[in-house]
Design goal:
Length: 327
C-alpha cells in the first residue's frame, strides 16, 4: 500500500507537469499569433499610407484607399482577438499555479522554436517499453494488485492457521483456622492454547476468500486495461510528434514562399508596375503562413510534453538542454 501511495503521488506530479507545460505552450502560441497579427496590422497601415499617396498624385483612386482602410480595420480586430487569447491562456496557467488570475505571465523564450524532449531516434516499441516500465500509474496498480494477492493468500490459508494464545497469572495462596491466613505460597500459572476459527461453520471463511480473490482479479484487470491505455497514449503522442515535425518543415517552406511573394509584390509597387492593393493578398498569405508555422511548432511541443508524460518522465530520456536537438 505504501508503494502504491508513493507511485500515485508521482503520477499526480507527472499529470501536473504535463498540464503546466501544455498551458505554457498555449501562452507561447497566443503571444506568437499576437505578434504575427501586429505585423499584419502594421503592414496594412503602411498600405493605407501608400494608397493615399498614390491617390494624391493621381495614380490611384479613393476606392483603393477605403479598401486599404477596411483591410486595416480587419487586422485591428484580429489583434484584439489575439490579445484576448493571451489573457485567457495566461489566466489558465495562473489557475494551475494557484496565482492571482490578474498576474501577467511572460514567457522566457525570445523566439518560438521546437523543443525536442524525447529522443526522436527511439522507436515506438522502445517508447512503449519505457512507458510500461516507468509510468507511475503502472507501479501504483501493480503494487495494489500485489497487496491484494497477498491478502487473498492470507484469507485462503486463514482457516488452517490457529491463533496462538499465551496467558499467565501470579497469586498468593494460603489457609488456616478462623480468620488467620498462614502457610502462604506464591502460585504461578501459564496457559498456552491454539484456537482455530471457522466463521459460520466455515461458510464465512469461504465467502471472504471468494471476495478477496475477486478483488485480486479485479486489480489484475485494471493493470491490463492500464497497459492498453499507456500503449495507446504512447502510440498517439509519438504519432502526433512525428506528424507535427513534418508539418513544421512544410510550414517553414510555405513561409519562405510567402515572404518572397510579399517582397516581389512590394518591388512591383515601388517600380510602379503594380497597384498597392496587390499587397493585400500577399500580407494575408504571409501572416497565415506565420500562424501555420506557429501552430505547428506549438503543437509539436505539446506532443513532446504529452509523450514525455505518456512514458512516465524517465530522467534517462528527458533532456535538460534541448538546444542540440532544435533545428
Amino acid at each position: 500500500i505504501s508503494r502504491a501511495a508513493n507511485a500515485a503521488e508521482r503520477g499526480t506530479r507527472n499529470d501536473i507537469m504535463r498540464d503546466l507545460a501544455v498551458r505554457y505552450a498555449d501562452i507561447l502560441q497566443a503571444r506568437s499569433e499576437l505578434a504575427n497579427y501586429n505585423v499584419g496590422r502594421d503592414t496594412s497601415r503602411k498600405l493605407v499610407n501608400v494608397t493615399t499617396n498614390f491617390s494624391d498624385v493621381g495614380l490611384g483612386s479613393p476606392a483603393e484607399v477605403y479598401r486599404a482602410k477596411t483591410e486595416e480595420a480587419q487586422w485591428i480586430v484580429k489583434v484584439k482577438e489575439a490579445e484576448r487569447k493571451v489573457i485567457v491562456s495566461t489566466t489558465s496557467l495562473a489557475e494551475i499555479l494557484q496565482l492571482d488570475p490578474a498576474v501577467q505571465l511572460l514567457p522566457a523564450e525570445v523566439q518560438l522554436v521546437p523543443v525536442t524532449i524525447v529522443d526522436e531516434n527511439l522507436s515506438v516499441q522502445e517508447l512503449i517499453m519505457i512507458g510500461l516500465a516507468e509510468r507511475p500509474e503502472m507501479a501504483e496498480y501493480r503494487a495494489l494488485a500485489e497487496s491484494r494477492l497477498i491478502r487473498f493468500r492470507q484469507e485462503r490459508a486463514r482457516p488452517f492457521l490457529p491463533y496462538l494464545q499465551l496467558a499467565g497469572s501470579v497469586g498468593s495462596f494460603g489457609g488456616g483456622t478462623g480468620s488467620d491466613l498462614i502457610n502462604q505460597r506464591t502460585r504461578d500459572d501459564i496457559v498456552a492454547s491454539m484456537v482455530w476459527e471457522f466463521k459460520n461453520m466455515g461458510i464465512g471463511n469461504y465467502l471472504i476468500n471468494r471476495r478477496s480473490k475477486s478483488e485480486w482479479r479485479e486489480s489484475q484487470l485494471k493493470v491490463e486495461r492500464l497497459q492498453n491505455r499507456v500503449i495507446a497514449e504512447v502510440l498517439a503522442t509519438a504519432g502526433d510528434s512525428a506528424s507535427y515535425r513534418r508539418q513544421i518543415n512544410a510550414a517553414e517552406s510555405g513561409l519562405q514562399a510567402a515572404n518572397k511573394s510579399y517582397e516581389l509584390n512590394l518591388e512591383r509597387i515601388r517600380d510602379a508596375e503594380g497597384i498597392p492593393l496587390e499587397l493585400v493578398q500577399a500580407i494575408q498569405a504571409r501572416t497565415d503562413s506565420q500562424n501555420r508555422l506557429t501552430e505547428a511548432i506549438c503543437n509539436y511541443n505539446r506532443a513532446q510534453y504529452r509523450l514525455l508524460h505518456a512514458i512516465g518522465q524517465p530522467s534517462a530520456i528527458a533532456m535538460s538542454n534541448s538546444d542540440n536537438n532544435n533545428p
